[in-house]
Amino acid sequence: MTNPLSLWNFYFRNKRKVLPVIGILALAILGVVVTDSLLASARETAYATFGSYQKLILVAPRATRDQDLANPLQDSLTRLHDVQLQVDTLDGPGGITSYYNAVVALPAQVRAQLPAVQRLQVDSANARYYAGRLRGDLVPLGDLIVRVQRLQSEQQAFNQLVTQLTQNPNDPRPLITYLQQHQTFLRSVLPDSAQLGRLQLAVTSASADANGLQQSLQAMNRDTANLNSAGQNVANLPLPPSPSATIDQFRSALDRLTASLGSIEQPQPGLDKLLADSAHIPGTALVKRDAYSNLDINLLAGNAQFDLYGIDQPGMTQLLTLYGDRVVAGRLPRQNASEIAVSEEIARARHVSVGSKLGNNVDELDRLPDAFTVVGIIGGPTRLGVIPLDYMTEHYLFERRYQGLIVIPQAGHAQTVHDELQRLVGDQAFRLFDWPYIKAKIDSLIANLDSINRFLILLVTLVLSLVVGLLNNLFFRQRMNEFGLLAAVGYSRWGLIRRVALESFGVTLAAWLLGVGIAVAVLSWFNTVFMVPHGLLMNVFDWNVLALHTLPIPLMVFLFGMGTVGWQLLRLDPISIIERRD
Amino acid sequence: MLSAKDLALDYRTGGSVAHAVDTVSLNVGRGSFVGLVGPSGSGKSSLMYLLSGLKRPSRGAVSFEDRDYANLSGAGLMRLRRRRFGFVFQQHFLVNYLSAFENVMVGAVERDHDTAAYAQALLHRVGLGDKLLKRPYQLSIGERQRVAVARALVHRPAVVFADEPTASLDQATGHEVVNLLADYRRSGGGSLLVVTHDPAMLSDADRVLQMRDGRLMAA
Question: For position A235, what pLDDT does the model report?
Answer without folding.
Answer: 46
